[in-house]
Amino acid sequence: TTLKPVIEQVIRRFPVKRVIAVADRGLLSTDNLAELQAIRLPGGHSLEFILAVPGRRYAEFVDLLEPFHAAPCQGATDEVHGELAWNGLRLIIAHNPRTAAETGAKRDRTIADLEQQAAAWCGKLDAQDAGQRTRGPHPLGWRRAGVVSTTPSRDGPT
Fold first, then answer.
1. Which among 7, 45, 120, 154 could bridge 41 via Cys, Cβ 3.0 to 4.6 Å?
2. What is the pLDDT of residue 146?
3. Cα–Cα dist 75/158, whole Å
4. What does the radius of gyration of the chain's CA atoms come to, in whole angstroms?
5. Where are the stretches annotated Disordered (predicted)?
């Protein structure tokens, strides 16, 4: 991670007594958390940090978040907040039903698009297995390179 060397440089250069690192989901891994927890300030204090991560993306949180999603989130119309302990850390939880619905709808559309694409590919492969030949796309995409002439040629319009 690039965060640890930057924090260590700041600690060496400035007489800081407290550092709170704020980061998003790109920082979260158990290795990165262990590195952050190992950093000590000159006075012996630990580095503090706030990480914003979507809990649904990390398997470590599934069992931990299940009771929260089962009780306060069900039927919620406004954002719901909670707090849990995880690996000796304070875990603040937030669930926004509107965001969850939008994310779910987007995921459903993506899955439907992928299923449609897969069905088209399967149909094409089945047709090829049956001996039907299909033309691939033009090497330059759907547009042909070159200038389109507005004057007719001997071979007809271009």
1. 45
2. 53
3. 62
4. 28
5. 129-158
C-alpha dist (Å) from residue 12 to 9, 105, 108, 150 = 5, 48, 49, 71
Q: Which one has a higher pLDDT value, 77 or 23?
A: 77
Encode burial over 22-40: b for 16+ CB neighbours within 10 A, e otherwise: ebeeebbeeebeebbeebe
What's the pLDDT tens digit per position in 69-115?
888 888 888 998 888 888 777 888 888 999 989 999 999 999 999 99
Tell me how crowded residue 157 is: count the other CB atoms within 10 A of its CB: 9
Distance CA 128, CA 134 (A): 8
DSSP-assigned letters across all residues of 81-130: EEEEEETTEEEEEEE-HHHHHHHHHHHHHHHHHHHHHHHHHHHHHHHHHT
> Is the pLDDT score of 152 beyond 80?
no
Query: What pTM value is reported for the model?
Result: 0.55
| The token pair that represents 136 in the structure block | 């691939």
CA–CA dist 94, 146 (Å, integer) = 55
